[in-house]
Amino acid sequence: MPAPRPPRRVASVIRLRPEHAETYRTLHRAVPQPVLDTLSRAHVTNYSIFLRENTLFAYYEYTGDDYEADMAAIADDSQTRRWWTLTDPCQQPLDSARPGERWVSGEELFHLD
C-alpha cells in the first residue's frame, strides 16, 4: 500500500483594515458552524489565521484530490458567501493582488515536519 500523500500546505495574506480590527476579532470568535462544516467537507484542515501589524496571515492544509473543485464548492456555499459579506469589508487586498483577488498566496520557502 503506498504511503499517504502529504497535505498541500496553503498560506495567504491580506491586510486588515485597522478600523475593523475589533469586528474581525469578534467575528472569528464565533465562526458559524455551517461555514466550518463547508471547509471540512472541502478537505481543509489545520486552518489558522494570524494577525501582525494589520496583516492577516492564513495557513491551512488541503487533504483532498481536487483542490479547484473543492475551493469552488466553498465559494458556492450560501452560508460561506454570507460569512464573506461580514468579513470582506474588514479586509484590504495587498497591492500585489490581481484584480478581483483578495487573499494572495505566499510562496513556501521552508518546511520542517
Automatic annotation (TrEMBL):
What organism does the record attribute this protein to? Streptomyces parvulus
Identify the PANTHER family for this entry.
L-RHAMNOSE MUTAROTASE (PTHR34389:SF2)
Which SUPFAM superfamilies does the record match to this protein?
Dimeric alpha+beta barrel
Q: What is this protein called?
A: L-rhamnose mutarotase
Q: Which InterPro entries match?
A: Dimeric_a/b-barrel (IPR011008), Rham/fucose_mutarotase (IPR008000)
- Output the superkingdom of the source species: Bacteria
